[in-house]
Amino acid sequence: MEVLLARENGFCFGVKKAVELTEAAAETGKTVHNLGQVVHNPVISRRLAERGVKVIRDVAEAAEGVVVIRAHGIPPAVRAEIEERGLECIDATCSLVLRAQRFTKQLADEGYRVIILGTPDHPEVVGLKGYAGDDHVIVETKDEWEKLPRMKKAGVVSQSTQPPWAFTALVAHVATIAQELKVFNTVCPVTVKRQHAATELAGQVGTILVVGGKNSANTRELVNLARMQGRTAYHIEAASEVRSEWLAGQNVIGLIGGCSTPMETLLEVKQRAEALAGTAA
Ligand code: SF4
Fold it and tell me: How many CA atoms lie within 13 Å of 45's alpha carbon, on the beta-carbon side?
């Protein structure tokens, strides 16, 4: 059995930077805290924990040392709290998320009612909300955006990992309910390329293994894409989850990882799938 790797795989540049900055901070011997999992990937989380990095949910949990802001970013109030508590701050917010935060603030400052396409409790959206003004609204589904009231000035941004088709559909709808509309396309081009790679893979195989954290938005989107094209897609976090019955009768299967899935995990999955199919070298 052949395991076909997608054209795009491995860390995106934002995740790579966040992991490298956290690892470099851990090397200094200081107490290092990640404010939330640095990336949504259990393998990386374990690796950092072995190097002494602590994951905290609230800045108040850090008595001293360094706080690393993850790629998803944080609201300005939390950033201020880090400074007030005299903690050293390493900002690993992805440059594309910083750009989305800037645009969100600009829309709010210019008097637009900010509409964010995203999952309300996703950390990136929690960060964006902090810049979006008091009357912002978050929508994730067509049902939700079709219930939006008419408005004078609407400004639209997106969580980076939302699918481009959803962003386009939302903008088209808001154009019919707003007198004035300003749009910043903040969908991440790296995730779009990954989604294209998933679509391409779905054109070549009937079964796809999608590897990444169960709480990783961009990984879940890859699973959705494969299933929308009628493919069987299994969402796993590690090689140990691959089951032989998924591979029975297959000549070729596809393999793709989310933007926070390291290549080493993908290669482990590939090896295990090949071994289970009885074709290991
Ligand atoms: S998925 Fe895109 S926005 Fe998110 S960390 Fe990676 S490059 Fe940045």
Answer: 17
- Do 150 and 84 belong to one domain? no
Residue 64 is among the residues annotated as catalytic for this protein:
no
Is 281 within the bounds of a domain? no
**Which residue has the least CA distance to atom 7 on ligand 1?**
14
* Closest atom of ligand 1 relative to the 97 alpha carbon: 3
Angle among Cα 157, 99, 142 to the nearest 5 degrees reads 15
The per-residue pLDDT for range 84-100, each reduced to its tens digit, is 999 999 999 999 999 99
Same-domain pairing of 143 and 220: no
- Cβ(34)–Cβ(70) below 8 Å: yes
Q: Is residue 153 predicted with pLDDT exceeding 50? A: yes
CATH code of 204's domain: 3.40.1010.20
Same domain, 129 and 204: no
Consecutive H or E run containing 165: helix 164-177
Please give the order of strands across the beta sheet that includes 54-56: 54-56, 32-35, 66-69, 88-91
261 lines ligand 1 (CB under 6 A): no
189 pocket-lining for ligand 1 (C-beta < 6 Å) = no
Q: Is the CB of 156 under 6 A from ligand 1?
A: no
Phi then psi for residue 152, to 5 deg, are -75, -55
**Which residue is associated with the tokens 């964006």?**
128
Residues in the chain: 281
| Pocket residue to mutate for ligand 1, from 97, 160, 185, 260, most atoms within 8 A of Cβ | 160
Give me the domain span that covers residue 205.
2-10+190-276
